[in-house]
Amino acid sequence: MTSPQLLMADQSGLYRTPASIDSLRERAGASGAAWLEADLAFARDKSQLLRTVARAGAFPGTFGANWDALADGLQDLSWRPAGGYVLHLQHGKDAAQSLGPHWPTLLEILRQTAQYWKARGKPFIVLVDEVAQLPTLK
Q1: What digits encode the pLDDT tens for the residues 8-36?
Q2: Which terminus of the chain is less hemmed in, N or C, by CB atoms within 10 Å?
Protein backbone atom coordinates (compact mmCIF):
# COMPACT_ATOMS: atom_id res chain seq x y z
CA MET A 1 0.00 0.00 0.00
CA THR A 2 1.37 3.42 -0.93
CA SER A 3 1.27 6.52 1.23
CA PRO A 4 -1.16 9.26 0.22
CA GLN A 5 0.24 12.28 -1.57
CA LEU A 6 0.68 15.13 0.91
CA LEU A 7 -1.03 18.49 0.54
CA MET A 8 1.41 21.23 -0.42
CA ALA A 9 1.34 24.98 0.26
CA ASP A 10 1.42 25.76 -3.47
CA GLN A 11 -1.97 24.02 -3.79
CA SER A 12 -3.58 26.67 -1.58
CA GLY A 13 -6.69 28.15 -3.15
CA LEU A 14 -10.38 27.73 -3.89
CA TYR A 15 -11.59 24.58 -5.62
CA ARG A 16 -14.76 22.80 -6.63
CA THR A 17 -15.44 19.90 -4.27
CA PRO A 18 -14.63 16.62 -6.03
CA ALA A 19 -17.28 13.91 -6.38
CA SER A 20 -15.55 11.94 -3.63
CA ILE A 21 -13.60 13.65 -0.87
CA ASP A 22 -12.34 10.47 0.79
CA SER A 23 -8.88 10.54 -0.79
CA LEU A 24 -8.55 14.25 -0.09
CA ARG A 25 -9.47 13.67 3.56
CA GLU A 26 -6.79 10.98 3.67
CA ARG A 27 -4.23 13.37 2.15
CA ALA A 28 -5.20 16.06 4.66
CA GLY A 29 -4.79 13.64 7.54
CA ALA A 30 -1.41 12.44 6.28
CA SER A 31 -0.33 16.09 5.96
CA GLY A 32 -1.39 16.96 9.50
CA ALA A 33 -4.00 19.38 8.12
CA ALA A 34 -7.14 20.27 10.02
CA TRP A 35 -10.37 19.47 8.16
CA LEU A 36 -13.03 22.15 8.75
CA GLU A 37 -16.67 21.68 7.68
CA ALA A 38 -19.03 24.62 7.17
CA ASP A 39 -22.59 23.71 6.18
CA LEU A 40 -23.94 26.79 4.41
CA ALA A 41 -27.41 25.32 3.81
CA PHE A 42 -29.00 27.75 6.25
CA ALA A 43 -26.67 30.73 5.79
CA ARG A 44 -29.15 33.17 4.27
CA ASP A 45 -27.53 36.43 5.33
CA LYS A 46 -24.10 37.81 6.21
CA SER A 47 -24.54 37.24 9.93
CA GLN A 48 -25.44 33.56 9.50
CA LEU A 49 -22.61 33.09 7.03
CA LEU A 50 -20.02 34.58 9.38
CA ARG A 51 -21.28 32.52 12.32
CA THR A 52 -21.21 29.33 10.26
CA VAL A 53 -17.63 29.80 9.07
CA ALA A 54 -16.48 30.91 12.53
CA ARG A 55 -18.10 27.82 14.07
CA ALA A 56 -16.33 25.58 11.52
CA GLY A 57 -13.01 27.10 12.54
CA ALA A 58 -13.88 26.95 16.25
CA PHE A 59 -13.16 30.68 16.49
CA PRO A 60 -12.83 32.10 20.01
CA GLY A 61 -15.85 33.72 21.63
CA THR A 62 -14.28 37.12 20.99
CA PHE A 63 -14.94 36.79 17.22
CA GLY A 64 -16.14 40.18 15.99
CA ALA A 65 -18.63 38.84 13.39
CA ASN A 66 -17.58 41.12 10.52
CA TRP A 67 -15.50 40.66 7.36
CA ASP A 68 -12.27 41.95 8.93
CA ALA A 69 -12.68 39.63 11.92
CA LEU A 70 -13.29 36.69 9.58
CA ALA A 71 -10.12 37.45 7.61
CA ASP A 72 -8.14 37.93 10.82
CA GLY A 73 -9.44 34.69 12.31
CA LEU A 74 -8.74 32.63 9.21
CA GLN A 75 -5.23 34.07 9.02
CA ASP A 76 -4.55 33.32 12.68
CA LEU A 77 -6.02 29.94 13.67
CA SER A 78 -3.50 29.75 16.53
CA TRP A 79 -6.17 27.91 18.56
CA ARG A 80 -6.23 25.24 15.80
CA PRO A 81 -2.55 24.48 15.21
CA ALA A 82 -2.14 22.21 12.21
CA GLY A 83 0.11 21.45 9.27
CA GLY A 84 -2.44 23.13 7.01
CA TYR A 85 -6.17 23.62 6.64
CA VAL A 86 -8.94 22.32 4.41
CA LEU A 87 -12.20 24.24 4.64
CA HIS A 88 -15.13 22.40 3.06
CA LEU A 89 -18.07 24.70 2.27
CA GLN A 90 -21.13 22.52 1.87
CA HIS A 91 -24.13 23.72 -0.18
CA GLY A 92 -22.11 26.39 -1.97
CA LYS A 93 -24.53 26.80 -4.86
CA ASP A 94 -27.48 27.52 -2.56
CA ALA A 95 -25.39 29.90 -0.48
CA ALA A 96 -24.15 31.77 -3.55
CA GLN A 97 -27.75 32.35 -4.64
CA SER A 98 -29.13 33.38 -1.28
CA LEU A 99 -26.20 35.52 -0.11
CA GLY A 100 -26.09 37.80 -3.14
CA PRO A 101 -23.28 40.38 -2.82
CA HIS A 102 -21.88 38.71 0.30
CA TRP A 103 -20.83 35.60 -1.62
CA PRO A 104 -18.09 37.29 -3.72
CA THR A 105 -16.81 39.02 -0.57
CA LEU A 106 -16.48 35.66 1.18
CA LEU A 107 -14.66 34.14 -1.80
CA GLU A 108 -12.24 37.07 -1.94
CA ILE A 109 -11.43 36.72 1.77
CA LEU A 110 -10.85 33.00 1.26
CA ARG A 111 -8.57 33.66 -1.75
CA GLN A 112 -6.55 36.17 0.27
CA THR A 113 -6.36 33.72 3.17
CA ALA A 114 -5.09 30.98 0.84
CA GLN A 115 -2.35 33.34 -0.38
CA TYR A 116 -1.50 34.26 3.21
CA TRP A 117 -0.99 30.64 4.25
CA LYS A 118 0.78 29.74 1.00
CA ALA A 119 3.35 32.48 1.70
CA ARG A 120 3.91 30.88 5.12
CA GLY A 121 4.42 27.41 3.68
CA LYS A 122 1.13 25.86 4.79
CA PRO A 123 -1.69 24.64 2.57
CA PHE A 124 -5.05 26.37 2.94
CA ILE A 125 -7.50 24.68 0.61
CA VAL A 126 -11.14 25.65 0.29
CA LEU A 127 -13.55 23.18 -1.29
CA VAL A 128 -16.89 24.59 -2.39
CA ASP A 129 -19.78 22.25 -3.19
CA GLU A 130 -21.74 22.66 -6.42
CA VAL A 131 -19.87 25.70 -7.81
CA ALA A 132 -18.78 24.63 -11.29
CA GLN A 133 -16.76 27.75 -12.14
CA LEU A 134 -14.01 26.84 -9.66
CA PRO A 135 -11.08 24.63 -10.74
CA THR A 136 -10.52 21.13 -9.43
CA LEU A 137 -7.66 20.31 -7.07
CA LYS A 138 -5.05 18.11 -8.63
Answers
A1: 999 999 999 998 999 999 999 999 999 99
A2: N
